[in-house]
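pasting for ref
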Amino acid sequence: MRSGREVPTGRDEAAPEAFTAGAAHPSGSASPARSSVHASSGKRLGSARPRQEGPTDLRLVPPALAAWGTAALVLGASPGWVLGIVAGCLAALGLLPLARRAGWASWPRAAAAAVLLCVAAAAVSAGLHGADLSRGPVPGLAREYATVTAEVELTSDPRLTRPKVRGDHVAPTAVLIDAEVRRVQGAGGATVGTRTPVLMIVDLGSADRTAGGRPVADGPARSPWLGLLPSTRLRVSARLAPAMTGGDRVAAVLRVRGRAEPEVVGEPSAAQRLAGRLRAGLREATDGLPADARALLPGLVVGDTSRITPELEEAFKETDLTHTLAVSGANFTILLALLLGPPGLAQRAERRGLAPRLGVSLRATAVLGGVLSLGFVVVCRPDPSVLRAAACGAVALLALATGRRRSLIPALATAVLLLVLYDPWLARSYGFLLSVVATGALLTLAPRWSAGLRRRGVPPRPAEALAAAAAAQALCAPVVAVLSARVSLVAVPCNLIAEFAIAPATVLGFAALATAPMAMPVAKAFAWGAHWPAEWIAEVARTGAALPGAGVDWPGSWTGAALLAAVTLVVLILGRRLLGHPWWCGVCGLVLVLVMVQPPPLTRVVTGWPPPGWRLVMCDVGQGDALVLAAGEGAGVVVDAGPDPQLVDHCLRSLGITRIPLVVLTHFHADHVAGLPGVLRGRAVGAIETTGFEEPADQAAFVHRQAAARRVPVTRATAGEQRRTGELSWQVVWPPPSPPSGPPPALPPGPHPQMLPANPANPAPEGPNDASVAMLVRSAGLRLLLLGDLEPPAQRALARSPAAEVLENVDVLKVAHHGSAYQDPGLTGRVAPRLALISCGAGNSYGHPAPGTVAALRAGGAAVLRTDRDGALAVVGEGGELRVARD
């Protein structure tokens, strides 16, 4: 075995060619060229491989963990607690010599002293940072909900809230910005200087929520607030409010009206302006790419997720690929690998990157890496994972520059310790926790698992990739379960398949980022090359998320996390035993594939869902409507799409629906149309039929844009229309022809489907609910009446209309408006259903269904079922037979 002694030579820097090989000299000693690698080092780098260098150095791990835990607990504590912790640590430090002499303690005195000092330092830092939340006039003004004029400095990029469906409308969109109040003036008061962290919420009015007729439900509005850079100073008139949640670095919430242009009183720093130009250049370079690549590349390279659609974001969450959109150590590792060579050489002196090929010395390489780290943090923004990656890299580069042996676990511990002392709020950050846990898994578990797989005949590269993905998933899954209340079953295979595309997409993306300010055509060429691997990653995410068994619900608490950790441990123990039995491994693999794919015939046998011969399924989509009418093998007519694309997509997948001859959207309220992307996802759709009353205008525009993007024609339904597909037929009984109301929706450029003309002889309905499309459906001898959200005026008019004759004594009634109290007794009595179905969300704030409505239906002889209690409902029957199955 080689010696670790210092080798005295006259050189203190190695020539590049000294790093190109790792073999020993034939005589058994190191070659002269390799002996001169680090003359100034206390220990020779690369004199042995990692397994020959002795046990891992874990001395910094206890101090780092102690500081981390102390900071998380002390933030927000009273000064008395902080002083008590510091005094206790100092007292214990003074008693250490006595404890050692008395034999009360057996641990090394230096290690115990380091832990005590780090705990004291973390307590002081956390106490000072926590005091920022109560210092100055801002917290008091927030408790009074005062209107103030404030000068604020932005500390983060503006980010747009994702649209959320609340009842029948989409909640107003807002821009969120982390900021510090530097000067504040209350009503009639003097201006006071301060430095208080706040969350600034810029409320965008209805005029600001669309840009060129494009509602923010499909993408970010072009608000001037979204173009602001960190370190910009603004003067705003706003209302202060107490922080909405505790445990965060926010002393108050500053609500600003966003209709006016932001008043800039201080330009951003030169570094932030440069970073802004680089990010804007990358967005411009990707403008001409396909939609997925245009959205993903900025996220993969610099964490810019402004173009990621909610549907694509959900697919990444379902497959645990979200880490690829949050700039992390993987990005930084790829960049350093270009400079220094593969990460596997981190503990050896040999380098295979660009630096030795360009003749850059070892110390100059470290300096260049430090500059790269700083630029990485500025351009990608100091998010927790970015800071952790840069700090680890900086520690490793410092070791490289000083010629000392580099070990990544001490580097990680040092990074955690320094970052927690610098910014104690990271101790409570889930992003920081996930970043550290994932890195620790790659440094500790992954090498051992990789070696075990290689001993069992797995080739080295696949073994390393599989071990890395499995180790990171095993340790991160409990934390992810706390955040999402879900466990992904496809995370490991999806990460394995996507991993091969991440490096080329990142490298070419960074090349586009760097060249965009100087030569946009070159940047566009790099971006074009990067779009292929980016599209691959997006396709992996979508395919994995589309699998019926992509994930399972799990308790979203720390108790659930502990339970998942225990299950993971059991699976690992059993898996280790199974590795010696290839046949059992194959059987377990086949079972896992079947669980993820869930073939419909097998699922039907195991779960009984969907029941054979189903005619109608009312999907459980929460507070909204979504129904499916059976139209043949793998085909169904969809009536309404619910409020959530994921929920309706899950329902359709469970039914095995791949073809949709027609989508009927009864009206344009968000709880009926916002889930349309989930209906269209991966399915052949013949047409979309809607009401002629196009209100709310933004949701009508959303529907038309979704249809135009997929070239699906849109028509208007009117009373008297009759259609048939296979054994399924239906007749539209409402609304009567009427002129369209409201402003026409703005459509994107390109061909658009033709609308059916309206009859101006009939007046317009009073609102969207009364313009709902109502249908009488016939399927296998059953008669089903679907009333949308019709309210009493329209229900009374329907009962007096020519279609009323065919509405008597139906088999199934889809109760109007989620079973609200506003029902017309005359229509209900005339319809006299045998079965009444109500679609509503559990615990909804509207009180749906109304007890009076349920009682009236039961008094009329109907059996009443509701999705909030019974889940998805399937109507099965033929002729006079009628029964219901529940999912």
